[in-house]
Design a protein that fits this description.
The chain has four helices and three strands, in the order αββαβαα. By secondary structure, it is an alpha+beta fold. Strands 2-1-3 form a three-stranded antiparallel beta sheet. The protein is 31% helix and 12% strand. The chain has a domain of 66 residues.
Length: 117
């Protein structure tokens, strides 16, 4: 178990089977990378690893490295979000403008049905 007072190292991520989230603060590119593929010693603390990397898209040196944010990585999370949006779009809206369900009318009260007699 890693020491909670010390920053997580690439070796900690590797042992736990987690990916390293690598984010370029200049262009916004982000990737999840196995810690061994970063080409750095595994005893390197994750926050320090970013100072030794260069973005392959823009050449920026302001890189952040942290443990993966989402299980399976940001690419998997993005694919899942797109899949859910497509499914929701295909299903259509769960409501219609101007039409309330009977239980919604009851909860809204008498003001919805008009003045009291």
């Amino acid at each position: 178990m890693p020491d909670p007072t010390k920053p997580v190292t690439l070796a900690d991520l590797d042992r736990q089977g987690k990916l390293a989230w690598v984010y370029c603060n200049e262009c916004g590119r982000e990737r999840d990378v196995p810690p061994r593929d970063l080409g750095l010693p595994l005893d390197t603390p994750a926050p320090e690893a970013g100072k030794r990397l260069v973005c392959s898209a823009c050449g920026g040196r302001k890189v952040t490295v942290r443990p993966e944010l989402y299980p399976g990585g940001v690419e998997e999370a993005s694919r899942e979000l797109k899949r859910r949006r497509r499914a929701r779009h295909k299903a259509g809206p769960g409501w219609q403008i101007g039409v309330l369900a009977e239980d919604q009318r009851e909860r809204a009260g008498s003001w919805l049905t008009g003045p009291r007699s």
